[in-house]
Amino acid sequence: ENLAQSNLINEKALLAYDLSIDETAYGTVERDFQEIIGELAGDSQLEPFKLEYEKLFLAVRKAHENEKYMIQSVRELAQNYSFQQQKIKTAQRMLKEDNNAIEALKSDLANAKETDAQGAQIIDKNQEAREALEAAVGELKAAVTSAQQGNSMNTAEELQYESVQSQLKRVVSEYEDRKLKNEELDKDIKKLKDKTLQIRQTKELNEITVKDLREEVLKKKEAANQFKLQKQKVEAEMLQCRQKCDELDVQILQKNEEIDQEKILLKQSEEKFFQQKQIHLKVQNEKKLQEDRLNELQGQKNDLNKTLQNLIQNQKEINQRIVKYNDESAQYKFQITQFNEEMLNVRKKIEESEQLKMSLDKEIEQTKTKTVECEAEALLKRVQNNELQKKIDLVNREKQSQQKSMKLSEMSAQEKEQLKSILTQQLKSYEAETINYRLEIQKLRDFIFVNEREKEAQFSSQQTLETQISHQKNELKMINNQIGELQKSVRDLDQQLKTKEQMHEQMTGEKNICAKNLVEAQEQISELRRQFRVMSHIIEQLRGEIKVKDENLIEQHDQYQKFQKEKDQINQQLEKAKMQLRDGNLRLQKQKQQISQQQFIIQEAEIEINRQTKEFKLVESEKHTIGQLVVQRNLELNKVLEQIRVQKSMLLKGEKLYRDKLSDISSLRNELNDIRQQVLQLRQKSGQLEPLKQQIVQLEKQLYEEKAKMRALTQELQAPMNVHRWRQLEGSDPQTYDLIKKVQELQKTLISKTQESSQKEVEIAEKEKIYNELKKVLSRLPGQEKVEKLEQYRENLKEKMKELKEAKDELQIYQVQGEKLKENIETVTAELNKLKKDYFAQKQNENKQTVGEWKGMDDEELQKLLGEADEAVGMGEEHDYDNQ
C-alpha cells in the first residue's frame, strides 16, 4: 500500500516536470521556421536577418533539447529518490522492529539466565541439604545402634528418640512435598531450556538479519551519498542552465536594444517617409494640376484642330468662290470695257462696286496669306501635335505605371474616392467645354453659312477671321511656349517623382523588413520570456522539492540519531535492570511469580518469534531479490569488463598488427630498394656478358672439335690396325688440358650465373607481387579518419579505464569497510565473551555468599533447606539420568 501511494505521489510530482513547449507546439514552430526561411530564401537584402533568425532558432532548439534532457534526468532522479526513500523507510521500520525484537530477546535471555542461575543455586542447595540429611541419618543410625547396644534407655532418651522420629517423619513428608515441587520445577526448567535454545537460535538468526540489515543500511547510505552526488550534479547542471538563461537574458537585452535602435530608425524613416509623402502629395497635386492643364490644352488643341479643319474646308469653299468671283469679275471687266460708253450713267455705281471690289480683293489677298500661314501653322501644329501625342503617350504610360505603383503602395479608399470625384468633376468640366465648343462650332457654321450667302459679309468676315487667325497664331505660340515649359516642368517633376517613388519603394521595403524583423524579434522575445518563465518555474519547483527532500533527510537523520540515543538508554536501563535482578531476593515465591511471568513472556516471545520469522522471511526474500540484483549488476559489470578486455586485446592486437605491418612495409621498402639496386647492377653486368658468351661459343666449337678427335682416337684405340706396332700413350698436352678445365669452369660459372639470374628473376617477380600486395594493403590501411577514430576509441578506453579504476577504488573502500565491520564484530564477540566470564564469576561469588549465609542460619531454616535439598537431589538424579 505504501509503495502504491508513493508511486501515485511520484506520478503526481512527475507531472510537474513536463516540457514548457509541447512536441506539437514545437513541431508547429519548426514548420513556421521552415516556411519563413523558404520565404526569405529569395531576398538578398534579408540574408543578415535570416542568419540571425537561424541563430535564434538554433538557440531555441538547443534550449528545447537541454530542457528535454534535464526533465528526463530530473524524472529519473526523482524516481530514484522516491525509490530509495521508500527503501530507507522500510529499512528503518525493519530496524525498529528488529531492535524491539532484540530487546525482547535480550530480556528473555536475561530471564532464562537468571532461571539457570537459580536452578544451579537450587542444585547446590540440594547437594548441601543432601549432605546434611546424610549426616542427620548417620546420627540417627548411631543413636539407634547406641540404643540397641544399651537395651535400656532413659526416659529422657526415649523422649529424644520419639522427637527425632517425629522430626524425621516431618522431614520425610516435607522432603516428598519438596520432591514433587522440584519435579515440577525441573519440568519447567526443561521447558525453559528448550525455549532458551530456541531463543538463542532465533537470536543468532536475528543477529544475522541485523548484520544483513546493517549492510543494507550501509548500502543505502552509499546510495544516499550517490544520490547527493547526483543532486550536486543536477544542481551544477541547473547552474549551467541558469548561466544559459542569463546569457539568453543578455542576448534578449541586446536584441531589445537593437529593436529599440531599429524602432528609432523606423521612427526616423517614418518621419522621412511622412515628409516625403507630403512632398509626394504636393507633387501629385502639382501633377494633377498640370494634368488638368494638359487636358485643358489637349481639349483646346482638339477644338483648334476641329476649327482648323472647318477653316480649311471654308477656305477651300472660299477659294472656289474666289475663282468663281474672279471669273465673274473678268466677265464684268469685259462687259465694263464693252459698255463703258454705254454705262456712263452708271459710273458712280461702278466706282462704288470697284471700291467694294478693291476691298474684297484686299480681303481675298489677306485671306490667301492667312490661309497659307494657317496651312504652315497647321503643319507645324500637326507635327507638334504628333510630338505632343507621343510625349503624352509616354507621360500617360509613366502615369499609368506610377498610378499602378502608387495604387500598389499606398492608395487608400478615401484617396480613390477623391480621385473619382476629381475625375467626375473633370469629366463634367470637359463635357461643359465640349458643349461650349459645339456651340461655338455651330456659331461658326452659321457664320460660314451667312458668309456663303453674302459675299460682302464674307469679305468682311475674312478680314475678321484673318485678324482672329493672327490672334490665334499668337495665342498658339504662347500656348506652345507654355506647353514646352509645362513639358519641361512635367519632365522634371516626373524625374523627381521617379526618384521619390524609388526612395518611397526603398523606404517601404525597409519599413516592411523592419516591421517583419520587429514582429519576429518580439515573437522570439515573447517565446524566450515564456521559456525563461517556464524554466524559472521549473527551477523554483526543483528548489522547493530539493529543500523538502533535504528537510526530510535531515528529519530522518535526526530521528535515526534519536533512535540510537533511545537504544543506548534502553541498553543502560537493561544493564541497570540486570544489576537489580542480580541483587533481588532468591525466595521460592518470587521464583514462582517469575516462572509465571516467564511463561507469559515466553508466550509473547513465541508470538514475536513467529512475527519475526515472517518478517525474516520477508527480509530474506528482499535480500534474495537484492542479491539477484547484485548478481545481475556483477554479471553486467563482468560483461562490461570482458568487453573492455576484448576491446583492449583487439586494440593491442590491432596496434601490434599495425606496427608489424609498418615494420614489414619498411623492411619491404628496404628490400625493394636493395632489389632495385641489384637489378641495376645485374643490368650493368648484362652488358659485360656478351663478350663472355662469344668466348663460350668459341670454346664450345673447340670442344666439339676436340671431342671429335677424341672419338676418332678412341675408335682407333678400340680397333687398332697394328697391335704390335702401336701402343697407347698417355696424353701430355698441358695447354689443351688447361683449356678444357677453363671451359669446364666457365660452363659451371655460366650455369651458376644462369641459375642465379633465374632465381633473381623469380625473386624480382615475387618482390613485385609483394610490392603490389603491399600497395593494396597500404591502400586498404586506415586513413586519417580511421586514425582519428582509433584515437577516439583510445580516449574512450582511457575514460573506461578511469571508470574501472574508480570502481576498483570503490571496491577497495567497501572491502576496507567490510574488514572494519568484521573487526567490530570480533570486538563485540570478545566483549560478549568477557561479559559471559564476568557473569559466571559473579555467579560463583553469589554461590559462595549463599553458602556463607547457610552457615549462619538457624535449625528450622536448615531443616527447610534439607527438604529443599532432598527435592533438589531427586531433581539432580533425574537431571543426571537425562544427561546420561
UniProtKB/TrEMBL annotation:
One of the Pfam families matching this protein, by short name: CFAP58_CC
Coiled coil: 74-143, 175-433, 462-622, 658-716, 783-845
Keyword field contains Signal: no
Domain Cilia- and flagella-associated protein 58 central coiled coil: 387-678
Coiled coil in keyword set: yes
Single GO cellular component term: cytoskeleton
Keywords for this protein: Cell projection, Cilium, Coiled coil, Flagellum
Signal peptide, first to last residue: none
Matches recorded under InterPro entries: CFAP58_CC
PANTHER family attached to this UniProt entry: CILIA AND FLAGELLA-ASSOCIATED PROTEIN 58, CILIA AND FLAGELLA-ASSOCIATED PROTEIN 58-RELATED
Name of the protein in its database record: Putative flagellar associated protein
